[in-house]
Amino acid sequence: MNVTILDRPEPPAGRPCVSDVRATSLTLSWYGPTYDGGSTVQSYLVEQRRLDKGEEQWQPVTSTCRSTSYLLQGLEAPARYCFRVRARNEHGLSEPGLESDPVDMAESQDPKQDDDISDDDEKVTEPYYQQVTINTKQKVSELFDIHEKLGTGRFGQVFRLVDKESGKGHAGKFIKALIAKDKESIRHEIELMNSLHHPKLVQCQAAFEDKSNIIMVMDLISGGELFERIIAEDFELTERECIKYMRQIVEGVCFVHEQGIVHLDLKPENIMCVNKTGTSIKLIDFGLARRLENNKSLKVMFGTPEFVAPEVINYEPISYSTDMWSVGVICYILVSGLSPFMGDNDNETLANVTSVSWDFDDEAFDEISEDGKDFITQLLKKNSRVRPGSQQCQAHPWLQKDTDNMAAKKLSKERMKKYLAKRKWQKTGNAVRAIGRLNSLLGVGNRKVSLSGLKISPDAAESPAPMDRHPEQQQQEQQQPLTEKQRCEPFFSQTMQDVLSAVGAPAKFACKIEGYPDPEVIWYRNGQPIKESQLYQIDYDEEGNCVLVISATSLCEGGKYTCKAFNVLGEASCSAQLQVN
C-alpha cells in the first residue's frame, strides 16, 4: 500500500541549458520538476561551481528565482563553470537536478556584448536556410552528438543534438515511423517546411531515416513558450509589448499563407521565444499543416478545442481564415490573461466556440485600447469569410501603432498566471486533440476517445520526461520484425497499487501499458468513466506510463479505480483502491 503525502518537489527534470554566453554573463534555462510534491513550486535555487579551480562545493547564485531561467552576471573569464538547480515548495527544497554541461567563459569575448543583453529584432542573425531531403545513408549519430532528452510525446522523443563539426546545438525529433503511412506523414511535414523559410518560423535543418524512426533535426529554441515568458519576474507586460509580439505572430502566419499553407494548430505552445532575455519569437510545429489547393475544398477534424475555429468543429471547408481565428484567440489571452472560450471541459469549450460567446466585459480590458479590442473583434467572427486575412491584419491600426512612443502602462500578469495554472490542470499534456478526440466529443464517427496524450515542445516546461534510454539503444531494441511489434494486445507491465490518502491531500495512481497499435485508455471510478477536470488529471505518455492524479481527495473520492487499455487486438485492465481518512 502506498501512502500519498504532501512532500518537497522532485528535482528539476533534464539538464540545465546554457545560452547567450557573453563576456561575463550567460542565461541558464531548465525544466520544472516532473512532480511538484503536491503543491506549487515557489522558487528555484541556482548553484554554480568553478571547474577550472577544482571547486567541490557548490555556491548559491540565487534562491529566489521564480521562473525556469536566470541571467547570471558578473562571471569571471577565463573560467570554466558548471551549474545545477533545485526546486522549492512550501514543504522544502528538492535534491539537485542534473549538472549542466561545462561552459567556458572566454577572455576574448567582446565585453561590450554585456551592455546589450536584449535581442532587438534587427540584431537577430538571419537563419541559414536549406532544402532538406531525408538522409538514409548515414546515421544521425555520425554527424551529431546525442545528449539529454528534452521531452517525450505520442509521436516519439526529442533529444538535444550538437553538430560534431560546428558545435551548434539542435533539437532532434525522433519520430516513430513503423508503417508507410507514418513515414508519408512525416515526409509531408518536411516537404511543407521546405517551403517555409522565414525568420519567424522554426526551421528543419536535416532529416535521417532508419528502420523504425525518422529524425528531424530542428532549430533549438531555448526561450520557452511565449506565455510562460511574459509571466517571468524580469518581464514587464504592457500593451506595447503585446503589439510587438502580435506583429511577429501575424508576420509568420502571413508568410505561411503566402506559400499556400495553413498551420491549423496555432496556440500558445507553438509560439516560442528565441531566448529568455529578448522579444523575438518563432512559430513551431507544422505537423498538422496542410497545403490549400485552388478549386479543392478541404475539411479537417483536428485541433485544440480552445483555439480551433467554428468551421472545423462544424466540419465545414477551412481556409486561411481558420488560422486567423486562432490568432484572435491568442491575442485575446495575451492582452487580458483570460480565455474567451475555455470551459470546465472540452465539451463546454467547444460549445462556447460554436456559439461564439465571448465579450470584453472583464475589467482586464479597461486597460486595452479600442484599436486593440477592434483587432480581436474582427478576427473572432463566426463567418470565416468576413475575418481579415493576415495581410489585412498587418495593416490594422493596432499593429501600425508607433510603439516607441506609446505609454508603457503595466498590465497585470496575475490573470495570465491563473490562466496557465488552470490550463495545466485541465489538459493531460500539451496534447493535440486530433480527429478521434474531436470526433468523439462531437459525436462524429465511432472511434473511441483517448483521454490522454502528451505533445513535446522544446520548452517542455510543464512535465518534461526524465532522461532515460539513449535513442541508439532504443533503435536496437526496435529492430525486431515489424509484424511482431504491430500485433500485440494491451497488457500492464506495471500495475497500480492501493493508495491511502488524507482528506484534502492529492492522490496518484500509476501504471505502465504495453501494446501495439498504441492502446487507448479510459479511467473509471467505481465503474463510472472519469472525465478530465480540475479534480482529475490524466497523463499518458509515449512510453506507456499512465497516471491519474486526484488533486484534492475527499471522502467521496474513495473507492475502486480502474485503468482500461484497449486496441484493435483486445483490452486489459487493472484496478486499485483509494482509501481516504
TrEMBL record:
Region ranges (Disordered): 93-121, 457-485
InterPro entries: FN3_dom (IPR003961), FN3_sf (IPR036116), Ig-like_dom (IPR007110), Ig-like_dom_sf (IPR036179), Ig-like_fold (IPR013783), Ig_I-set (IPR013098), Ig_sub (IPR003599), Ig_sub2 (IPR003598)
Cellular component, GO annotation: cytoplasm
MF (Gene Ontology): ATP binding; calmodulin binding; metal ion binding; myosin light chain kinase activity
Superkingdom: Eukaryota
SUPFAM superfamilies: Fibronectin type III, Immunoglobulin, Protein kinase-like (PK-like)
Subcellular location as annotated: Cytoplasm
Keyword annotations of the record: ATP-binding, Calcium, Calmodulin-binding, Cytoplasm, Immunoglobulin domain, Kinase, Magnesium, Metal-binding, Nucleotide-binding, Phosphoprotein, Repeat, Serine/threonine-protein kinase, Transferase
Enzyme class at the top of the EC tree: transferase
Cofactor(s) the record lists: Ca(2+); Mg(2+)
A Pfam short name: I-set
Domain annotation Protein kinase: ranges: 144-399
E.C. number(s) listed in UniProt: 2.7.11.18
Domain Ig-like: 490-581
UniProt binding sites for ATP: K181
Domain (Fibronectin type-III) ranges: 12-108
CDD domains to which the protein is assigned, alphabetical: FN3, STKc_MLCK
Family: Belongs to the protein kinase superfamily. CAMK Ser/Thr protein kinase family.
Protein name: Myosin light chain kinase, smooth muscle
